[in-house]
Amino acid sequence: MRDTIFTRNRSVPVFIAILTLLAIAVTILSEAYGTGALSVSFTKVLGMTLCLCLAALAMDLVWGYCGILSLGHFAFFGLGGYMIGMWLMTARTEVVIRANLASSPIPPTEAEISQATALQIFSVVGAEDWPWMWAVSDSLVLSLLLVVLVPGLLALVFGWLAFRSRVTGVYLSILTQAMTLALSLYLFQNDTGLRGNNGLSGLQNIPGAEGVGQDRISIWFFWASALALGLCYVGAAWLVSGKFGNIVRGIRDDELRVRFLGYPVEVYKLVVFTLTAMICGVAGALYYPQAGIINPDEIAPIASIYLAVWVAIGGRGRLYGAVIGAAVVSLLSTYFTGGRAPDLNLGFYRVEWIDWWPVLLGLGFVLVTLFAPKGLAGLVDYLVRKERT
Amino acid sequence: MIRLAIAALVGVVLSLLPPGKAAAQEAGGPDLQSILQQNAELVADASRRTVQDVLDILIESGLPEVPAFLATWQARELYQRESDGLFFYVEDPDADPLTLLDITSGEAVGTAGSREVAQLRPNRGVQGVIAAALVQFQLGSDDPAERLSALASIESDPDESHLAILRDMMETETDADVRRRVEALLPALVIAFADEDAPRIEAIQSLAGNVSLSARATLNPLLATTLEVAEALPEDRNVAAQIRPGRDALSVDDAYAMLVDAGLAPPLIPRSERVDVLAANILDGRVGGVPVAELNTEDARDRAYAALVEAGLADPAPTEAEVAEAVRSYVFYEVYRESSAAVTTAARETLEGIETRVGFYRVLDLSLDGLSLASIYFLAAIGLAITFGVMGVINMAHGEFIMIGAYTGYVVQSVVANETLSIAIAIPLAFAVTFAGGVAMERLVIRWLYHRPLETLLATFGISIALQQIVRLVFGALTQPLTPPDWLAGSVSLNDVVSISSIRIAIFILGAIFFVLLWLILNRTRLGLEVRAVTQNPAMAASMGINPDRINMLTFGLGSGIAGIAGVAIGLFAQVVPDLGANYIVQSFMTVVVGGVGNIFGTLVGATMIGSLQKAIEFLNPSNTLAAQTYMILFVILFIQFRPRGIVALRGRAAGD
Amino acid sequence: MSTLLEVSGVSVSFDGFKAINNLSFAIGLPELRAVIGPNGAGKTTFMDIVTGKTRPDEGTVRWGEMGHSLLSMSEAQIAREGIGRKFQRPTVFEDQSVWDNLRVALSKPRGPFASMFDRVTPEDEARISAIAQEIGLSDHLRRKAGVLSHGQKQWLEIGMLLAQDPRLLLVDEPAAGMTTEERNHTADLLKRLALSHAVVVVEHDMEFVRRLDCRVTVLHEGSVLSEGSLEHVMADERVIEVYLGR
């Protein structure tokens, strides 16, 4: 009778196996440690895709399992990126500045280095002092802590306010979207300390690894992303397979019943919302060093909607569904918008994928919602069941 | 060229001088050219001091063509022929050869290469004197319009000499308009140029309560100050305030810099300079005995520099204590540029009164701004109030209907050139197009999702990105023009503070019309009744013979159609781009939610609140509209915590607990 | 028998409509009470007030031996105080198995971290089996609740109520959609429960109420019209008038 993580989530061993195989295959084909069949940039795309899958996993927990359609989780993702980005940019710029000042006849003081670093980073927005939010940007440990703390804290405060006053359903979605919009508008301002619409750049240069080529760095980040995804997948599976999962799904299906059973529904929602925000923060912190640049556009409300779209296409309420959706849609998007897909010549009209992909994606999404509410994972379920019978 | 035209006009006016006077001149006096020839030296090489003599002679002559001549001369468009020294006008200064015109008759009298004639270029001082003479001419004109235009030129460029003229005019002027203008203008001139305090103070006080820009521009210079430093406060100066360095708006460092500039203290050695001195004195890897490698702290540098000073290799730099002491031993103060204390006091008091009034008008202007923003939000959200508020359908593509409405306007305008006509066509057409779009969307997508609101959100979002991209493919991503008719282009202003553009008034009126119309439709028609019936209980409504499918379809079409009309209106002042609607969607949803779902009155209240709030925040931080939006959204998020059902909340079972 | 719940002078109105009008009601432990009344009499609103779903405009709701107020508590707190509720329409977690439904209802710590690390003990297992036995769903434990029949869902919800181990049970139309045999079983179960619990049953079916054989409270227009044995209230002129029309 007893349920375990594996009896409830038969996908876990399969998923871990596939992920391991993928990691091994990518390593063997990589430029740094293998045959070199995979270019550095494609390795990065794969690593970034894994991070998006991780964000989608979090989105699935909060939406698919808990029923909260958050249109703010990509903002948490971006915040994680900003948090690690501040350290990357500070440390990297400082290395460059130190190298520049090394030749001066009088060795520079720490204050001078800090000042020059700040000038280098912020002159683009017409400032020269460190904004308060960069206070711990020189410490890797503290920055890593912020990667989870800042999205977590924002989610905690926002969630507490929203759940406490029982904002639910589409109202909550609109409220989270408003939060995302407010955050991105805030970041767009030049004087708020995160370089306005310039964002943070040069994140692919890892301080302390100046002698290491991007070929190796890309594969390291790929491993890290795979590890994070694997761990979070197992953790999420454990979470949803136990009583906590029952209650959370109960909240999704019949909030009132859960409440009358004596469970503090708001606290459960808050736990899920905050936890998934933290996972998104981690995913973002792994993603943006691979992307190399982060700017407020990344956080725009539309990004969070895309995240929901991936989960819906993949199939929500199933952990692997989220991962499949994010992987398939984001890889296809990369393919079609990357300019590598050959144009389709219809004779009377030339279909350029870069232009038509958003149209297809939008319409495809309508079709999935209408005709395949269980998404791609529903297809997987169907095939698996068919095989068994 | 414009000056030539003015000169011509002046000529025409002066030719209407009383015939007796003109006739007297005609009878015996010499013509213009000969007068000029007598004073050719003074004309050709005019200086500020000597030109008045020539002007006096010219004015004395009373010749009708004198004003035109003066204007041309002042405009540096007068030429002198090298061969005989005669003066001419030219037809086109850029032509070669130049066509010479007679200065009396204006007829062409020959041509000349640019080398054969010299262009007269009176300097700025001379130009000023000529202009003053011209103004006298104009003010002496019989035509009130002419006198008004002369006053306008005085206002834009007042001169000491005008004061007496205007004072005279106050005595003699009979035309009411001109007199009013003189009365308005005189105080500024009195304040600027009168010699005694009493009339100036009187003039200042006469401006009390006058919120016009020119009144404030007259008073503000009187209160301009300069920052000065001395050992004690001077008795004989008009001191505005004493400044305490470090506390008032003057840092100790800046204060010390002032002392240095005034030669009252030795200069500081900036850190960068000190590093240069240190670098210049490296000896065997040491500076003043301190190893170079250790010079990466301020402490070590202090020691090294001190050692250099000791050895006489560097100038001593004042320490912080010395700086503070120096600053403390002097007095810093702001002194008025205006020397009369009575004048500055009167100006300050008057200006304070004006500022209070201006403040009041600012609030009024801000309220109008807020109201106009509110009506824009209302327009953008009103369609949503029907589809989302009444039907409960989340339509993320609502913004795209607005965008399509705007593009409809653009397409109509590219076919029908007349702006008024094109807008008149565009409004019903936009309604038709988006109504059809809404109905199609409802039939094809939304009706399958009535019980899955979150999925409606995502499906309509899919439609939204598809529509946006299709429009981008068809029309391009660039801004397309949608020009308002001329009668909407201006603005209505109450005074220099309060003004509102006509188009915003039109949008306000449009919003009001929409509100009334929709309220009537929902509350006073059969359709409205059926809509409410279907919304509240579809099964019951169906059993009473209402076709819910038809009602849902029509309601959705209505909401979308209104979005289309809103799009035309918004397109008139915003940029018509494919993501036009996306910029409004979040605000629109917030407007509906804040106002309270389920009734359009709530949307009105919500729009008013969000609009005025955003303007108020913008007022507090005018440089940053992004910040205003950010704080506005944060406020809305907080507001919803306390009124989750909005301002105009339906209570009880009807609210769907 | 001591008073467990005392509702006194409670009124609530929606948009001017007085759903509950100066209602007073008390129940002791143990006791079985049936509440009847025509549609719109305020039966469900009464339950909403007791369970914290609706806040009354005036009046007091006191609970337990200490008699502290329930009005400032959330629904979940009230439930944890020991008030269980079965809804008119069966509400079970349709997407989850019967076993899971019962497990979630079991009276154990309600906090999120307690749930995360909750382990199914042999006692839990035994209790779930016993309840399943009681409600006749032993053979359906692995099935999803959504595929059960209407009557079985009613049973499951009653089972969840039992698993919650409350002191006061508010049961809204438990017999709807059941066969006669099932009804009898339900009535017997409720009567047995009432030996150690306070049970309030809202029901339309007079046959079922008769079988419960307990004190009856008649609600009308938001206040108590009559109270006493079924025979007593059925003889009451006003009750007859309300039920049969004027």
Number of domains of chain A: 1
Identify low-pLDDT runs of chain B: 9-27, 651-657
Strand content of chain A: under 5%
Distance between the termini of chain B: 77 Å
Number of strands of chain B: 12
Instruction: Characterize the largest beta sheet of chain B: strand count, sense, and whether it forms a barrel.
Output: 5 strands, antiparallel
Summarize model confidence as the mean pLDDT of chain B: 81
Q: How would you describe the overall organization of this protein?
A:
The complex is a heterotrimer of chains A (389), B (657) and C (246). Helices cover 70% and strands 2% of the residues of chain A. Chain A is an all-alpha fold. Chain A has one domain (5-299). In chain A, the strands form 2 sheets. Chain A has a two-stranded antiparallel ribbon with strand order 1-2. A two-stranded antiparallel sheet of chain A has the order 3-4. In chain A, helix 4 (73-101) packs across helix 5 (110-122) and helix 4 (73-101) packs antiparallel against helix 6. Helix content of chain B is 62%, strand content 7%. In chain B, helix 11 runs parallel beside helix 17 (341-390) and helix 18 (398-415) runs antiparallel to helix 19. The N and C termini of chain B lie far apart (77 Å). Mean pLDDT of chain B is 81; it is low at 9-27 and 651-657. With 246 residues, chain C is of the alpha/beta class. Chain C has a domain at 2-92 and 166-244: P-loop containing nucleotide triphosphate hydrolases (Rossmann fold, 3-Layer(aba) Sandwich), CATH 3.40.50.300. Chain C has a 6-stranded mixed sheet, with helices on both faces. A 4-stranded antiparallel sheet of chain C has the order 2-1-4-5, covered by helices on one side. In chain C, strand 4 (58-63) and strand 5 (68-69) form a beta hairpin. The N and C termini of chain C lie far apart (38 Å). At the A-B interface, helix 6, helix 7, helix 12 and helix 14 of A face helix 14, helix 20, helix 25 and helix 27 of B.
